[in-house]
Amino acid sequence: AERSGQAKKLKKTVAEVATKLEGFTVVEPLTGANVSTQYVSVVGYDSLLSGQPEGIKIEIGLRELLLTPAFDGAARTALLDPVSGRPMVPPVALRCISRMEAFAEKFRAALSRREAAIRDFYDIDYAVRRLDLRPQDPALVELVRQKLAMPGNEPADVSEARLAALRRQLDAQLKPVLRDRDFAEFDLERAFRTVGQMAEKTR
Predict the structure, then answer these.
(1) b/e per residue, 69-100, with b = 16+ CB within 10 A?
(2) DSSP 8-state secondary structure symbol assigned to residue 177
(3) How far apart are CA 40 and CA 55, in angstroms?
(4) Tens digit of pLDDT for each residue in 120-133?
């Protein structure tokens, strides 16, 4: 009941998207699931690039507290003006979870998401290669251990069946959303080993 009460303001905010942001519509209103621990909505817009309707999925979790302090950050666009080279949209101020907690969440998802998602493994592999993520960092390992111990998580899964499911997602789900060079740099076997090593450390 407490979580449902907290979600009322969120539902109102999402419902107002269409009136406050030109070009957007609410395709699916914010709806709760899993005893009001998770809320999901979809907003839609007509893409100027493809000319087709596109959707943005909004997920809000109310199932647990953060383990590290949040901070005031900024969301920046990757879309640049082709003439000036400057961002097309100014940064948007918002509260952010810490870098360490974000990586811990990625490892938890890679290890325990009911249906394996290739994006989790890509993000971890990219972070190791480009963002100086150190999976052996004791503080990170401890955060992942605590998150896996939270009620409601599936057991950590680094089975061959999970790896096979991820291989099937490479061309179908990952390749279409990456630039050719980024896709070529990704090594699923390497990413899976990284996640497997985290599973060993958190047992």
Answers:
(1) eeeeeeeeeeeeeeeeeeeeeeeeeeeebbeb
(2) G
(3) 13
(4) 999 999 999 999 99
User: Using DSSP, how many helices (H) and how many strands (E) does the chain show?
Assistant: 8, 5
User: 104, 150 in Cβ contact below 8 A?
Assistant: no
Q: Which of 6, 58, 66, 13 is nearest to 37 (CA)?
A: 6
Cβ-Cβ contacts under 8 Å for 153 (sequence gap 6 or more): 108, 112, 147
Which residues, other chains included, contact 201 with Cβ-Cβ below 8 Å and sequence gap of 6+?
A: 136, 141, 144, 145
pTM beyond 0.85: the answer is: no
Distance CA 125, CA 79 (A): 23
The tokens for 4 are 């449902």
Instruction: Tell me how crowded residue 40 is: count the other CB atoms within 10 A of its CB.
Output: 15
User: Which of 6-10, 117-121, 157-161, 166-170 is the least confident region?
Assistant: 6-10
Cα–Cα distance for residue pair 100/127, rounded to 1 Å: 11
